[in-house]
Structures are given as structure tokens and as C-alpha cells.
Amino acid sequence: MSPATTHLSAMGWIRRLTSDRLDDLSLSDDAGRLLPVQALHGFGDTMFAVSLVGSLFFNVSLDAARPRIVLYLAVTMAPFLVLAPLIGPLIDRVRGGHRMVLLGALGGRALLALLLATQLKGLLLYPLAFTILVLAKVFNVSRNSLVPVLVTDHSLLVVVNSRLARISAIAGAVAALLAVAILESSSAEWVLRAGAVAYGVGALLALRLPPPHPWENASPIVEQLELSGPGVRSATLGMASLRAAIGFLLFHIGFVMKRTGEPAWLFGLLAISIGLGAFAGTFLAPRLRRLVGEQVMLTAALATPAVMALVTALRFHRVSAVALVFVVGISASVARRAFDYVVQTEAPHARRGQAYAGLETRLELAWAAGALAAVVSSAPGWLGAAILSAGLGSVAIERVIQRRAAVRMESTAAQATLPLRLLETAEALAARGDRQQAVLVAVAAVDAVTLVGAPVKPELADLRELGREAATDQDEHAAEDALRLAHQLVAEAYLVSD
Amino acid sequence: MFRRATLRRAAVVILLCGALLVGCGDGNASRDSDVADVYIAVIEWVLAESEFALDPALDEMTPGYVDSLGPDEIDLDVQVEVVRHFEPDVDIRFVDTRTEALDELDVGAPVRDGGILLGLGVVPIEGPIDIRAEVYRTLDRVVGYRFRLVRSGQTMVLIEPPERVEPESLVGEL
Fold first, then answer.
1. pLDDT at position A244, please?
2. Which residues of B touch A258 (CB under 8 A)?
3. Inter-chain contact B13–A81, Cβ cutoff 8 Å?
């Protein structure tokens, strides 16, 4: 077989693995250009994780290191409080801002990884490693905020996210093999340097990303209302719980293994398990979706690791820990797909990075909170697993209890979206300069809200008066005031109903 | 583009982070360095001249597990200095619990990977440097020493060969 044929067959194999059999779409989509960037990020991440085997973490006692770990975890996660309002506008409003964010996250990681390679056995390990971790979160928030603005069709959101997850898992698996080979033949420092190269190339590829698709027709208010709807909120809570579980599990198992003197290869096995789980989850999710709804998928993704964590708590050892990590990997992956389905279905107008950045930042903060809880509690292995089981189990049970209410909400969902659609139409008309029609449609949106069950407010009369002035007197100020008031009334009605 | 409140919030967070990072700096570096030098001298003697001396012909790094004999754990900065001193010839690992270092399922509960477990006593703040240490290989092979050291330039040196004493901490049920 010639090298060219081998290359082609390898590409075909990767393509088969990364394609979604249910929605087999071509990745000529602009978002497809994120694939190599994501692959290099996943590659670098695994290299970074494996290199830590040769770090100071395994040489110093955890009790002595814990205050520093807590401090750096808290300090490095603090910037997330400002991430959402900064990343969103950068992606949406600054020309090439999305490239700047990804370039910063990947380029920054490349430089820090090179620096860390000289400090693996020094106290600078902690600030450097945690800053690399923060930049990984910045990358995740940015990428997840970027996908919706890069896809040409909003219905591709799930497919593209699914492929990004798969390519990341494949790249991670390849990197794991390479990292072990480098570790055996050379040192952890060189593993880190190889990771830095991957980050660097990823940063350069991020510069080739196409500009986001225009979103002028999307109304920020409609987006925000859709994204804060009960379905999306419930899914966000479920997803955040799983992200917190991953953060908790990562640090809990890491600490327990160190404390019980487990060999370094076990950490590698755990990293591979979570990656394999995430990969398997991308195949399982579309099949599950054919059987049950997205919200049920999310509940199952919370309940399954809760049960596995309970089994692990009853008999905590290497095998059960690896199995738990694998199950959490699958569940998180399935939950992510379900979450994407929910957002795609219930927030079809949400396109701007700004709208997603807030959502994604909350998920990353949940991860950090979980990690912090594990470090601070320093619970024995079985107890940590029990805490995890109780936490995930209670969220799953709460979702089951609220299922009836959710079903009721689903039945009124079609009615509930009518005012939003009307409001969006009004905004589009106003943007085109047709203010009279815009005001009439906006008044209709407020009427629709009262039809769905919102209380009739006295301001409704003011709105009608403003609408009349705008229509009869061609008063632009009255038209603007009317549109603003209509937005306010619709928004208030939705917030009250929540 | 960014709201003023957002920028103000960002500035506060950055300032807080900076203040915290500056605040977490070690204010007792000189004392830590002295303690580290004492421990380095003791470990060097154990690894080179005691009956537990490492075989230099061995290719693999033999782990040297270290625990505190005192009530408090050894300071992180001291641990880092000791680890860095022996890197890359000896793999020094400080432990939280002694079971971390032992293969308890094996007969005699030997130290993992053919290594040794060192218990290091508290270094006195003032007066002559007199420190106790214990070395554990298996349940029935534990030795205690008393070291007397003095500073000589940049390093600590042993005044005389260590005196053998009865081990107290690393014996019996660990």
C-alpha cells in the first residue's frame, strides 16, 4: 500500500469515527474548521495531564500542599466572574475577536506549558498548572460560544458539537500513547514541550477561522428569554451538576490515589477511561435520543453515575474507581449532547456568543466548585464516592419529581413562544425602518403574552396609546418608546411565569 | 464596547488575585532553608553511608519516602527544596500517612519498590542542631539515629557519625 493510500484510508477511518450516523452532514460548514483546532487542543490537554505524573505533585505531601492548591484553585477561578461579559462582546462585536480569544487561550497555554517544563519540580508548578487549567476553561467557553455563531444552520449545533467531542477524544487517545512513549524514553518535561507545540499549532490554526455569521436579525431579548426558559434552565442545572461532579471526581480520586500510594500508571488509566467514556457517549447519545427525550437523557446521565458512585462507595478500589470515571465520562458526554439538543430546540434564536458565554461560564464555575469541594473536604475514597452519589442522585430525583411539571410546561411551550416570535418580528421590522408595522406587531406580542396567562398590566393601556401615536402621528419617538415598553412587558411576563 | 461596571469588576478581581498571590508568599524563607539543609544532610548520609545506602549500580531511581516524626507536617517549601536537591538521582517523596509508602499486603510490609521510609525529627529553632531520624525497610528492619550537625558555609555537616538509638515511631503497627 502506498503512503498516499495509507493516508487516505486513515483519513477515511477518522472521518467514519467523527461522522454522525444519524445526521451525516458534510463538514464544509464553517464550524468544521474548528475541528483541527479542537483536535490539537485535546492533544495538548492529554500531554499536559500525562506530564503531571512527573511533577512535584507526587513528591510532596498533600496535607502540606493543600492550602496552596485551594488558594490557587480559588484565585485562578476568580477571573471566571468576569469572563462571560468579556468573551461575549469580543466574539460578537470585535472584528476577528473570536480568533483573538482562541489565539490567546491556546497561545497562552503553549507559552505556559514551555515555562512549566522548567518548573515541574518547583513551587511554580501550582500557579502555572492552574493558569493552564483556567485557559483550558477559557478555550471551552469560547469554543462553545463560537460554535453557534459559526454554524450556517442552527440545527447543526448538536452534530458539530458531537464531532468536536469525538475528534478531541481521538486526538487525546493518540496523544496518550505518544506521551507514554516520550515519558519512557525521555522525561515529563519533553511530554510538556510536545503539548506546547500542539497548543501553538492550534493557536495558528485558530487564526484561519472564518468570521462569525451575522446575527442582526436575532433579538438579544428574545435570545435571553429563550435561554432563561424553564427547559434550558433545568438542563443547565443538570449539566452544571455533572460538571461539578467531574471537577470533584478528578481531584478526589487524584488525592486518594496519591494518599494510598497508587502507581503513576493508574492516573494514566483514569485519564484514558474518562476520554473513552466521553467518546462512547457521543455514539450513545443519538441512539438514546431516539428512545427518550432530551430531559430524560439528562436525568439518566445524572442517575447512572450516582448509582455507580454508590457501588464504588460500598467497595472502593482501583477497578471500581476506574469504572466510575468511565461511567462519569459517558454520562457527561451524553448530558452534553442532551444539553445541546435542548438549547437547539428551545432557544432557536440564540446565536450570539454573548448569550452562550454566560451559560458556558456557569458550567465551568460548577467544575471549579466541585474541584474546590474535593480539595477542601479531603474525604476518604469511599466517602467521596458517597458524597458524589448523594449529590448526583438528589439532582436526578429532583428532576424526576419535577417531570410532571415539566411535561405541563412542554404542552404550553408552543403557546409560550408565540409572543417571542412576534417580538422578534417587530424588531426585524424596526431594523428595516418600518416602525409603524413594528409597533403593531409589538402590541400583538404583548396581547399574546396576556393570552398565555400573564396578568394584564396597566402599562398595556400606555402601550396602546403610544402605538396609536406612532401610527397616526408618524411619531418616531413614540414608536421607539412603544417598542421598548413592549419588550419590557414581555420580559416581565416571562420572568413572572418562571 | 464593555460596560464600565464590567471593567470595574474585572479590575477588582485582578487586584484581589494579585494581592492574594503576593500574600501567599513565604515569610520564613531563611528558617525553611536551614531546615531543608539539615534534612538534606541527614538523607545524604542515610543514602550514602548507612546500612540502607542505595546501590549506585542500580539504574532505576529508588524512592525515598519521607515522613515527619514530629506532630506537625514538614513545611511545603522545605519539602520542595529537599526534592529538588536530590532530583534526578533519588526520587524523594514526602507522605501524609506511612501506609502511602508501604506495601502492606506483602510479607513484612516492605517499603514500595524496594525503597526506604525515613522519619525525620523536628529541627530545633535555636541552640545546637540535634535531630532524630528513623529508617524503615521492613517491619523487622527499623533503625533509629541521632544526628548532630553544624552549619559550614552553604551546607550543614555532621559533627560526628550519628549515634544509634532505639526506634520509637516507625516500629510496630504503623
1. 93
2. 100
3. yes
